[in-house]
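Sample entry (138 residues):
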Amino acid sequence: MRYWLVKSEPYKYSWNDMIKDNTTYWDGVRNYQARNNMKAMKKGDLVFFYHSNVGKEIVGITTVTKEFYQDPTTKDEKWVVVDLKFKKSLKRSITLGEIKSDKELKDMSLVKQSRLSVMEIKKSHFDIIIRKADEKKL
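Predicted structure, serialized as tokens:
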């Protein structure tokens, strides 16, 4: 199993939209590295859902339910989507500021490649985020 993070601007598609829809295809990716990451996703992989621009926080977890296929929003065959399904909301969101201030997360892809919209997350980083989300914020 691998671990990922996808970003969405809340005004375009929010975590509440994900909860309401329960499942969606992840479309609109127009960056080759992000596209390649989507091509590497496998059914059952866990995916953090991150609100970008507004909030800048990890808010929940989805799971990959269908591996990559042609993006139905474009005829350009270069671009793909994956299907994601709601898994659970985090007990508390984890902000980018909190991630950047944690020395255990300093080399997390979200910090190193902040503009990338679909990225792989190390299992150790995934586990730290889950642990932090279960803790009460100081």
